[in-house]
Amino acid sequence: MSENTISRRRAIALAGAGVAGVAGAAAVGGALVNGASAGEAPDPAQGSVAFNGEHQAGIVTPAQDRLHFVAFDVITKDRDRLIGMLKDWTAAAARMTAGRDAGEVGAVSGVPEAPPDDTGEALGLPPSGLTVTVGFGPTLFRDTTGRDRFGLAARRPAALADLPHFPGDVLDAAISGGDLCVQACANDPQVAVHAIRNLARIGMGVVSVRWSQLGFGRTSSTSHTQTTPRNLFGFKDGTANLKLEETDLLRDHLWVRPGDGPDWMTGGAYLVTRKIRMIVETWDRTSLAEQEMIVGRTKGSGAPLGGSDEFDEPNLDAVGADGQPLIALTSHVRLAHPTVNGGARLLRRGYNFVDGSDGLGRLNAGLFFMAYQRDPRKQYVPIQRNLARRDDMNEYLKAVSLGLFACPPGVTGPDDFWGRALFA
Amino acid sequence: MSENTISRRRAIALAGAGVAGVAGAAAVGGALVNGASAGEAPDPAQGSVAFNGEHQAGIVTPAQDRLHFVAFDVITKDRDRLIGMLKDWTAAAARMTAGRDAGEVGAVSGVPEAPPDDTGEALGLPPSGLTVTVGFGPTLFRDTTGRDRFGLAARRPAALADLPHFPGDVLDAAISGGDLCVQACANDPQVAVHAIRNLARIGMGVVSVRWSQLGFGRTSSTSHTQTTPRNLFGFKDGTANLKLEETDLLRDHLWVRPGDGPDWMTGGAYLVTRKIRMIVETWDRTSLAEQEMIVGRTKGSGAPLGGSDEFDEPNLDAVGADGQPLIALTSHVRLAHPTVNGGARLLRRGYNFVDGSDGLGRLNAGLFFMAYQRDPRKQYVPIQRNLARRDDMNEYLKAVSLGLFACPPGVTGPDDFWGRALFA
């Protein structure tokens, strides 16, 4: 157990039943984590990720296995309350990232007569690679009636332009958009849920949960140290994703640079979220050959058709014995490829989801697509336009939710907080 | 990597792009699992659980960390098709439990012109402790119109009596009941989802998904080797649960015995599922002292009030300085305790859930309660009646879904299948 974990346990024990509480908490020393029993060697997936930095954690951080994403509406009109909450969120997120409780339960308000400053469900759990990443939606700058609620309208980046409608999208407004978003990623879902739930608790009266999404089985690797996972079509997904080791590409395609727009976004990135229902029952009745033609890759290895290894560059010019392109003109791999999108690339951090069933005898399952980038107008929009028009995979997909958020740079010191430069 | 995992990978490779597919699949050897990278020591949470046995796996099996539960409606009128599907399910579940694909992709129908016999999203993943457990609902024996659809009405156990209505329940019929259920538990959600999804695929035309539930962070330990996890109220849950090591108690309280009812259920158990929405936002505004009084335990250690250790027996007679019981008369621990329920006990296997948000600014979160037992009329019903009437916790709970299923004994040999004795 790390010192941080002990802190998380100790805090509640102090607020609990005195001596009895402390003794009891100590007995939890060999804490339960991911089914591992006490005394096993520490698992790197249980460690902590640095919170402070030039960029927010949770973007190029090697993608953790679980996601809890939430979009909030701001329900206060009071700019100072909003700023105060962002300060409180920053402090709580820094603590939780380190494996501690969300607030000083024992020291500040931790008397039995007060509600606890931490909800407790992560007591005894290690940091589990938690990252918490915040973004600001277009409606924070000017709401849907055009009102400048917080004096931020002039600071809205041009790159945070409303996204166009794409053919085939059947978006549900109730689970789209949002004034603020928080992405919590961790290797234990209980830790991710705990983080979101405590930020919602801290934000009571200032923000209200607009929509929320859980995900598992990340669909993209963001580091060369990770193998490529599979989406619910059974294919490797995100092979050509930007990786944290590719610093030159990240500079060109991911991080907002000085001069790109307002200074407060320098070092940040724009996030597009897109909840894509996959009609898996129909897909599962499709032949393997057709599945591979639609994707443009081999199902087993993930190699591009005509290639032999997953990481082979797709040969878009190769033709088969029948004179047809090996990688079909309407295949997903071709249409998403940088060479047919003016070189545009994305850093993807998507997750699989299953949200129960749909009332029609089918699983409500799919991909919660998340992509970080320097400018959606030059990256997500042209790529998605290309896919929406021609991708054969669209027959099996239905986009139901869309979000766009400006994720500010990282927090760099004890007085810094999420959005400090925006509100300065 | 185990031989089983290689089998799972090899099967699709054979059905894929020939040599290229095999080479690519081999490159996945150091498979991605729970964020662990290639070359690490094997994790026991990734191993396999025996499928065959006197009892079904997934009941006393040390509770895995993730759940995918599904209830099906039978949509065929053809008894033989139903039996055929149960045979196919049994074979597929045995394979998947061992870390293999759901069907012989390469050998049987694995030509590119046929849909694959496995959906592929678990390729390269280890068995991950998968168990698949099946149950039969009351409506399989006689549907809601009283019709005996499959000639099973006379074989319905008396213990599979329709559950009474409890005060405060606001059940949604669309996510309650079901003719069949399948519980898939694993330490990787992608593996649990893969199992359910492939059984649904195999059952196409015979069954239709009625409702489905994902869970994480199990709320009960079923073995002395496991520490007690926490529910979303932040409290340890299931401390007094039946454990697999308590064979005498399991004989009395869990497994159906000869003479209890129809022979086909001997060695089985009855499952009650209850999806309980927890109003966590209200709970989080409740003082620590009140939370502990409602639960009857200390939040930090999980010790019963007045005790010092989680596993101390609650002293229901102890009174404080004010002359009031230390464990309140309306506390959850007291009302659920065997001594106030005629000795009735349950084997619980619940899971936490978060299903997005509720459209009212709150997380849709709670407990998917699952309890196995020898006779619900003598166990779940009296305990729940007691809780429904008096439990202070009810103010923060809302039951939205209920299910009851007769889970037959285990499969014991190659010709055996789920429900063989029922349909004999």
- Beta content of chain A: 15-25%
- Percent range for helical residues of chain A? 10-25%
Name the shape of chain A in a single word: globular
Oligomer: homodimer
Largest beta-sheet details of chain A? 9 strands, antiparallel
Question: What's the total number of strands of chain A?
Answer: 9
Distance between the termini of chain A: 40 Å
Largest interface: A-B, 114 and 113 residues
| Derived structural class of chain A | alpha+beta
Poorly predicted parts of chain A: 1-7, 9-40
Radius of gyration of chain A: 22 Å
Count of helical segments of chain A? 11
**How confident overall, as mean pLDDT of chain A?**
88
Order of helices and strands of chain A: HHEHEHEHEHEHHHEEEHEH
Structure description:
2 copies of one chain form a homodimer. In chain A, a hairpin with a 5-residue loop joins strand 7 and strand 8. Chain A is α+β, with helices and mostly antiparallel strands and 424 residues long. The N terminus of chain A is likely disordered.
Features:
homodimer; 424 residues; alpha+beta; nine-stranded antiparallel β-sheet; 23% helix; 18% strand
Short description:
Helices cover 23% and strands 18% of the residues of chain A. By secondary structure, the first copy, chain A, is an alpha+beta fold.
Helices and strands in order, then pairings?
Two copies of one chain form a homodimer.
Chain A: H1 3-15, H2 18-26, E1 66-74, H3 79-97, E2 131-136, H4 138-141, E3 180-186, H5 189-202, E4 207-218, H6 247-253, E5 269-278, H7 280-283, H8 288-295, H9 332-336, E6 347-348, E7 351-357, E8 363-373, H10 380-390, E9 397-407, H11 420-423
Antiparallel strand pairs in A: 1-3, 1-4, 2-3, 4-7, 5-8, 5-9, 6-8, 7-8
Helix pairs in contact in A: 1-2, 3-5
